[in-house]
Specification:
The protein is built from 13 helices and 8 strands. It is an alpha+beta fold. It has 2 domains: about 160 residues, no CATH class; about 150 residues, no CATH class.
Length: about 350
């Protein structure tokens, strides 16, 4: 009997190994197919949209993002400094990134099949009221940024003092923050929640913190503040640079961004991805706008035009289903900026000669 059990265990292990190999092959095939789609469609997209849709990019640092949201003709270095300052002010980026990490552990613990370590850490974090405290600190820092931007830098001594007092009252002591970070490490999934970066930030001087935010912590903090989801990078299939356009009502800023999917079934996923990336980039643009002096003033309006491409025939989506796709995504108030954002959404089928727009 024991030999039979051993044989069954061996067979199960072999099946698991084969399944893992198959999953790896599928992921590899999907990646290769995506690269082929980008290669095959690049000429069509370039011909139809020109330089406005740019090229594929992976944005990681403050400089990467500044190169997109700083309008053509503007120097990148000052823009990079402004972006870092926006996330460094009142430790805005840190609070949002840390609260995202805690919330993610709690979500994992309440999800399907959590590990014992995740459940234990989630319970400990809940007992510490970690998320509630970090969320309050994040909200106070966000409000401070918005108040400063709306008042052109602080609203006078009285307003600045009131904001500073609110932020100070909401701050979580660094010892308590370090205790949260240690729990994130204990969960076994701390690397996915930037626990090591959060720890380095807490142990660093203000100058060192700025360097961390300028580098690989920038996009995680930016995306956490702007969208509530911390991302290691912004992977964009197509992304142009912000350009200024003159209209009857005045100058506006325009940003084109695109996402490609192999099949129309992936359009909804692509829409979520492009909206998330566009929202993060819009937040960065408005951080530049708020921090610019009068001589370098940027338009209040940012017109974001998102394009979703698929290689399959758009008719594989029924007309009714196509009409259920949103033509735009609306954010009533960008956190820390207080201004609305509307992302216009267009969907296309790629053919050998053109990108055919769907009728919604």
């Amino acid at each position: 009997m024991s030999n039979q059990i051993c044989a069954v265990k061996t067979e199960v292990s072999s099946v698991k190994t084969q399944m893992q190999a198959m999953q790896k092959d599928i992921r590899s095939t999907a990646t290769s197919s995506g690269a082929l789609l980008e290669f095959a469609s690049s000429g069509v997209i370039d011909k139809q949209f020109g330089a406005s849709l740019g090229a594929p990019c992976a944005l990681r640092s403050a400089e990467d993002v500044a190169a997109v949201v700083s309008p053509v003709g503007r120097p990148i270095v000052p823009s990079t400094t402004q972006l870092v300052a926006a996330l460094a002010g009142e430790d805005l980026g840190f609070w949002h990134l840390a609260s995202c990490g805690v919330r993610h552990v709690q979500d994992l613990a309440s999800g399907k099949g959590p590990t014992a370590a995740v459940v234990a850490v989630a319970n400990e974090l809940q007992a510490m009221r970690a998320y509630e405290q970090l969320a309050v600190a994040a909200a106070a820092a966000t409000s401070a940024l918005e108040t400063s931007a709306a008042a052109g830098g602080g609203g006078g001594p009285g307003g600045a003092a009131a904001v500073a007092a609110a932020v100070a009252a909401a701050r979580v002591p660094e010892a308590a923050c370090m205790a949260v970070v240690r729990q994130l490490h204990r969960s076994g999934v701390g690397s996915g929640m930037f626990a090591a970066d959060l720890e380095r930030y807490l142990l660093s001087s203000p100058e060192q913190r700025a360097e961390l935010l300028a580098g690989h912590m920038f996009v995680p903090c930016l995306s956490a503040v702007a969208t509530g989801t911390a991302l290691p990078e912004l992977q964009v299939d197509r992304c142009g640079r912000v350009a200024l356009e003159e209209q009857v009502s005045g100058a506006i800023a325009v940003l084109h961004i695109g996402e490609l999917k192999l099949a129309s079934a992936g359009v909804r996923v692509a829409r979520k991805q492009v909206v998330r990336s566009a929202t993060a980039l819009a937040w960065a643009y408005h951080a530049l706008r708020s921090g610019a002096d009068s001589a370098a003033a940027l338009p209040l309006v940012l017109d974001v035009r998102a394009h979703v491409f698929t290689s399959k025939d758009g008719r594989s989506h029924s007309r009714q289903a196509s009409r259920q796709l949103p033509a735009y995504h609306r954010v009533e108030r960008l956190p820390g900026h207080g201004c609305p954002l509307t992302i216009d959404l267009s969907y296309y089928t790629l053919t050998p000669s053109a990108a055919k727009r769907w009728d919604l």
